[in-house]
Amino acid sequence: MSDWRPFVYGGLASVTAECGTFPIDTTKTRLQVQGQVIDSRLTECKYRGMFHAFVRIFREEGLLAFYSGIGPAILRQATYGTIKIGIYQSMKRMFVSNPMDETLATNVFCGVVAGIVSSSIANPTDVLKVRMQAKTESLQTSMFQSFIQIYKKEGVRGLWRGVVPTAQRAAIVAGVELPVYDITKKHILKSESMEDHAGTHFVASFTAGLAGAITSNPIDVVKTRLMNQRVLKTTNGTASAIYTSSLDCIIQTARTEGLMAFYKGFIPTWIRLGPWNIIFFLTFEKLKKIY
């Protein structure tokens, strides 16, 4: 019989980490979508950096603006986090029964598969979260009504807008963060420099967050921009999109804004992924020990 606990613990820990770091994610999204020369809605660079974005959003929109999109974000983590961690932990045990015998290659493979499957399923919640954070269009107050609104105007493809870069990013993040955490923790325990306690989990999770931020930020920029664009259904088909694919987004972004555009929002990405991973892994490890 399969073990259900990694699924439940992963979902609970993911939701906890998401709630604790969501305002940082909002500033990251705003920084990533601004300055798009070919999108008239977002040509202005309103925010000079993370701290300036925090101050300006607070002054102009109020405290609640930082939690715009928290509903679909929690729903996303309840599905994405649950499936990702459950698949990752279950697949590892299929290959290796003893955690101390795990290899980097095995963990990376399991992380990549877990990231692709979970993010593909949870994509509609990510689309709604990004659009609510970016504030580029008027959505319904009800989360489920907003899903219906996107579906009516853009069809099923609208709900799975940006699914390819989302899956690519999830594969990178899960294929880096989860293995880095496990391998770092394993080496710390093997060296006997620290015991299996919160300090070890903190060091391993901080390392995982930094590695994840460096490798995932470029694809995260592409994902955010693809999700934020609208391609409305018309009687004659569909209107032309700003970006037709992930590759097109990469080429146009590099051409119009330069290569450093792919690291827009890196500071809030890192600052968010660090605490996110720390909160997540500390919660996950605590739940394992309690139950």
From TrEMBL:
Keywords: Membrane, Mitochondrion, Mitochondrion inner membrane, Repeat, Transmembrane, Transmembrane helix, Transport
GO biological process, alphabetically ordered: transmembrane transport
Localization terms from the record: Mitochondrion inner membrane
InterPro entries: MCP, MCP_dom_sf, MCP_transmembrane, Mito_Metabolite_Transporter
Membrane-related topology note: Multi-pass membrane protein
A GO cellular-component term linked to this record: mitochondrial inner membrane
Solcar repeats: 5-94, 102-187, 196-290
Family: Belongs to the mitochondrial carrier (TC 2.A.29) family.
PANTHER family in UniProt: MITOCHONDRIAL DICARBOXYLATE CARRIER-RELATED
Protein name per the record: Kidney mitochondrial carrier protein 1 isoform X1
Phylogenetic placement of the source organism: Eukaryota, Metazoa, Spiralia, Lophotrochozoa, Mollusca
